[in-house]
Amino acid sequence: MEKLAVELLTLIFFYACTDGGQTGCSLSLVSRRIRDASRPARFYSVSLMTSPTQIQHFLDCLQTERARSREMMPRVRHLCLSLFGQGLNTSGSSIQAGPSTSFTATASPPAAAPTSRAEFLASLNRRTRQWRSAQDNLDEQYGRVIPTLIRTIAPDVHTLAFLQAQWRSTSVVRCTFPRLRELTLVGGDPSFLPFAFVSDNQPVYPALKRLHHILAWVGKEVDFIKWATHAPNVTHLRVSRLDYHPRITVDTLDQAIGENEPDCFPRLQSVVIQPCPAPPPALRMGPSHIAFRDYLVHLQRVAERARVPVRVLPPLEMPKPVPGADPQQKCIMRVKTEWLDRVEGDGDGCWQEGVNGLRLSFPGA
Fold first, then answer.
1. pTM (predicted TM-score)
2. Whether the Cβ atoms of residue 73 and residue 165 lie closer than 8 Å to each other
3. Which of 208, 265, 288, 353 could form a disulfide with 231 if both were Cys (CB 3.0 to 4.6 A apart)?
4. CB-based contacts of 239: which residues, under 8 Å, 6+ apart?
């Protein structure tokens, strides 16, 4: 290692720093020579999964390393960003925000089980208020760091997995992603950049090739006609957990991939659709089962009249609840694994072929 040219070492480090940041951090601790040689590649791939504080520390570190850079500027090419934080625990814990930590959960004595309907409703109302307070706190903390993060990485990022949970942005980040090739979104369109605030004359994602929408919560509209305007070069489109409400999501998807709209996604080559989970099984079919059956028939017709090949996968399967297991965290790590698969070896990720495809299980709203 000591005899290799710095330029060759830097190239090797770019191939090594594809694990979300762990290797880059380790290389910076080896020696001064290795730290300097690995600086351009240190932030090649980054995963930020835990808290607003982690994001702020990352931004501080990136700015410091950029100030020390003499030739090649450290840039983020691949980013996995989750705004779920550490989870919102409202069952017997008081959540406090501090200046240097995202959340501090202070255990409280377990509350006695309600003995009446009135006590149950009061307990439910109290937990709802605690959850809303914690969510508002989380929104405020992320709102202070996300705009800066997005403006910093937008010009250079190639792949982005964005799990925005139920974060509500209070500001609009006016930027474009000129080099972004792959985008995975969990929870609808990015709330920091609504298409309503962007001119149709300048696409937000001009180089985007693969778009994966995971519609993890009912009620968030996705307008695929708008996406066709701002991501005109998409070749592969996947929509997971597609529900029949809101109708604008299904209808604009049908319109965007149909034969009557060849100008929408003009370079589109393939589409994958995975419906939302089916209603719980019952001895007799109820209205919800009949509606879901009709919805699956409608999706098949959407696929038949599309101008490109469309694979409609079986409905998403919800995992059975397991005591002590957090299905939310399991799903977050699944998205991260797919993202790493594409970054590390240009693997299939969520785009693997086959009828069964990749099953992503996300809890309901």
1. 0.82
2. no
3. 208
4. 212, 213, 215, 253, 271, 272, 273, 274
